[in-house]
């Protein structure tokens, strides 16, 4: 089944929304791609692109005739937008999102888009962002070879097959789980690494400025994600607060394990800890390569 | 002043030692480069390279006629080796190292190589390693464009100028400080990031294996250094234990700051924390790019 839509609407045209528009055009996945953005300058920028057919200044107007809608704004803006669009969308419309959290978004999706006369919402999380944000960094190949997590829960089969074929058509590998499971996983593999990078940088900024002249690629790579948009990330931490706090507390335990290995006279526990870490990291290279 | 040596001896031919040999040959910095390695297989591999003139099975024999000696083995092996070589080295010999810690190594250097009739030791730390180790990963361009930290303390001017010209000839930017200061800096910018990456991976290895299928480039980049050699890193943590422990305790404070920002109802402190981190990280990109 090759994905094809007549009227796609991208709600929010930042890094992910813009890249989706480009990728859909490049792969000829839609007859028409339209955009709504709350930002006037983003709407103006979209109007100048070759992938965007119509730019709307209201999401309701944009979605009236849509058969595929993708929420691409910050995670906390998605449920209020769903509420506005639920009475508007056609029953055959499929809606999804690209948010980094899923439990609250999918609960809102269930609330606003359930019942046989309604459109269908199924959550998606393409692991394809970066520390960069905004339309100027968008690129058609952003999704290629990366993983997309779908959280279908009780979604009907036909829209789910359609959604799978969409992300597959962008070159993504699919991973499916429940929304709550998704949030526990990404808390650990994405939100925690972001928090560590941010804490590392916040901490370093209290030290003499010339220390950064000594920085090597170890520090650069391990802290790269800390350059991400604070507004996006504070919304993510809030949306996924309980799983995120749990991942922080798990991490504290791992750090305590390292410290107690240091307390021992011999190096056996220290070597064991570092070897366990290395084995995991080497294994990680064997998966498909993807960004988040 | 263009660096040039007659008889260079590399003690330990792993990633850094091997790369030094290659780079010196490529840039024609020495009449002859010799190697001693405690490993028979490394000695055999060196004998087959185009940059290695003679391979020695004893460090004493290797260093007898040397005018430039570089310790390239694990940090804890350097002081015992200095003790063996102090009675052997010619008075005009300059010795340095590539170790990731400096206080203990430079103290041993002062002990074994001080006085006007003795050779001179000055500590170096080229920030040019990676998570890879061993001769097979060595490359001539490893040092280009990166930072080398020198810790001369009371070194006489002539050998210091010679050492500066050596690392500069390899394309490195120099940074000079006291050995103890070096150790505090690298604890924070190199050893701490390594510990965080290792704790992140050790922690993740306790979670379901399929979680790694969801991993994005955020996790990959922030954990890359955790794939480093456990033996090398446990020696580094031990050698720099007090500054390393201090950096861990600093980091705990930064993490606690993030958690108390989360405890607040509003997002102001959270945004402030993430913005401070982002500003630091963006600034880091403006320095010269270098590896460690």
Describe the structure.
Two copies of one chain form a homodimer. Chain A is α/β, with parallel strands linked by helices and 292 residues long. Chain A has two domains: 5-177, Rossmann fold; 182-284, Orthogonal Bundle (6-phosphogluconate dehydrogenase C-terminal fold), CATH 1.10.3660.10. Chain A is built from eleven helices and nine strands. The first copy, chain A, has a six-stranded parallel beta sheet. A three-stranded mixed beta sheet of chain A has the order 7-8-9. In chain A, helix 4 links the parallel strand 4 (68-71) and strand 5 (94-97). In chain A, helix 4 packs parallel to helix 5 (103-112). The longest helix of chain A has 26 residues, at 179-204. The radius of gyration of chain A is 21 Å and the shape is globular. Mean pLDDT of chain A is 94; it is low at 288-292.
Please summarize what this structure is:
Helix content of chain A is 48%, strand content 14%. Chain A is an alpha/beta fold and 292 residues long. In chain A, strands 3-2-1-4-5-6 form a six-stranded parallel beta sheet.
């Amino acid at each position: 089944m090759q994905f094809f839509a007549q009227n796609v609407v991208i709600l929010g045209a930042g890094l992910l929304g813009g890249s989706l528009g480009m990728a859909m055009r490049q792969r000829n996945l839609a007859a028409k791609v339209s955009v709504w953005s709350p930002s006037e300058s983003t709407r103006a920028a979209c109007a100048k692109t070759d992938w965007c057919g119509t730019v709307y200044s209201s999401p309701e107007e944009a979605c009236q005739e849509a058969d595929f809608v993708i929420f691409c704004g910050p995670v906390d803006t998605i449920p209020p937008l769903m509420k506005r669009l639920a009475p508007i969308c056609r029953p055959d419309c499929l809606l999804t999102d690209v948010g980094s959290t899923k439990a609250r978004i999918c609960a809102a999706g269930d609330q606003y888009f359930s019942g046989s006369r309604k459109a269908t919402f199924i959550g998606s999380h393409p692991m394809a962002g970066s520390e960069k944000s905004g339309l100027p960094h968008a690129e058609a190949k952003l999704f290629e070879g990366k993983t997309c997590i779908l959280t279908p829960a009780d979604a009907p089969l036909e829209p789910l097959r359609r959604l799978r074929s969409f992300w597959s058509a962008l070159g993504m590998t699919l991973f499916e789980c429940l929304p709550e499971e998704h949030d526990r996983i990404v808390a650990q593999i994405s939100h925690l690494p972001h928090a560590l990078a941010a804490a590392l940088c916040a901490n370093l900024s209290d030290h003499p400025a010339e220390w950064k002249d000594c920085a090597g690629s170890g520090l650069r790579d391990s802290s790269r994600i800390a350059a991400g948009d604070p507004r996006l990330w504070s919304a993510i931490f809030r949306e996924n607060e309980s799983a995120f706090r749990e991942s922080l507390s798990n991490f504290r335990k791992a750090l305590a394990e390292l410290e107690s290995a240091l307390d021992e006279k011999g190096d056996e526990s220290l070597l064991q800890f570092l070897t366990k870490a290395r084995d995991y990291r080497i294994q990680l290279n064997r998966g498909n390569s993807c960004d988040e």
